[in-house]
Amino acid sequence: MKKEDLRILFLGTTSFAVEHLRFLIEECYNVVGIVTTPDKPAGRGHKLKGSPVKEFAVDLGIPIFQPEKLREESFLESIRALNPTLGIVIAFRMLPKEVWRLPSMGTINVHASLLPRWRGAAPINHALIAGDKETGVSLFSLTDKLDQGDVIAMRTISLSEKDYFGATHDLLAQEGVLLLKETLSETINQGLLPRGIQQLVEGEPLYAHKLTKENTRISWNQPAVAIHNLVRGLSPIPSAWTTLVEKGQTDTPAVYKIFETEVIVDYSSASLKKRPRVGSFLPAPKGCLYVVTQEGVLSIRSLQAPGKKRLDISAFLNGFHIPEGSYFE
């Protein structure tokens, strides 16, 4: 099989997907069509804005499809007319079988976790939030069940308590590109898609559920390590958040985004007369902000006040006074 014989239909939305599409374009693969989400209102002016994939692809001269419904007959007819050999879906919504079965070789997916762990919408975030010691990318054949197809290839990376979502996302995108490169090369050489291995599930599978306003809020009733992991898994976007309650305040507490933290393991509480409430602030070295948690102390390293830009904590404390008796809630 020649490279041009592999007629690729690419489906994706996010910046993670863009890196894989960029690879396909730079390596001169025959991408015959691109499917992404419809434009959505964005920003203060609520102007329509395309997905990162559309923004990247708009000048490539490749047909772009943005169907509201993936089962629309007009959309399916347009895809059939492209006569695709292989579908590649990355960071997109769940596909109906009318779409993923359409390419003659079927459809493959690059998913940012070590399947079957963290099936679902936000695998990188959940791996960090859970404090996983490793994660990776999986390339698998699509089926009609969410992220449950046979795994063709995997790559693994190590995680530490210093790894945050932003850098981990970018690293996994690079690893995903390598997986895709290897798989496509083998497909062209053999003239068919490599055979995958069935996912082995021990116990109840873990799902990376969609991030919401509720599950990104910090609960100070958790241990410092758990809060630190939440911050790591959400930084820089969408970011963990909390509210600052000031003493005597009657209006709605202000929302603060927390971007970077550190667990303080050797804090001495000998000078404290009683255990302070969770979320309250402890005496700390100059330029530091220490917060009481259910178990342990958390140092806030970077945050963003309402209507302000992100600041490291020393710059924040230089320009903002936290009234005595205030606390995070």
UniProtKB/TrEMBL annotation:
EC numbers, comma separated: 2.1.2.9
First-level EC class: transferase
Ranges of residues in domain Formyl transferase C-terminal: 210-320
An MF annotation (GO) of this entry: methionyl-tRNA formyltransferase activity
Alphabetically ordered keywords of this record: Protein biosynthesis, Transferase
Catalyzed reactions per annotation: L-methionyl-tRNA(fMet) + (6R)-10-formyltetrahydrofolate = N-formyl-L-methionyl-tRNA(fMet) + (6S)-5,6,7,8-tetrahydrofolate + H(+)
Keyword Membrane: no
GO CC entries: cytosol
Lineage: superkingdom: Bacteria
Binding site for (6S)-5,6,7,8-tetrahydrofolate: 113-116
NCBIfam families: fmt
Record-linked HAMAP family: Formyl_trans
Function: Attaches a formyl group to the free amino group of methionyl-tRNA(fMet). The formyl group appears to play a dual role in the initiator identity of N-formylmethionyl-tRNA by promoting its recognition by IF2 and preventing the misappropriation of this tRNA by the elongation apparatus.
Family, similarity comment: Belongs to the Fmt family.
Name of the molecule in the record: Methionyl-tRNA formyltransferase
Organism per entry: Porphyromonas circumdentaria
Gene: fmt
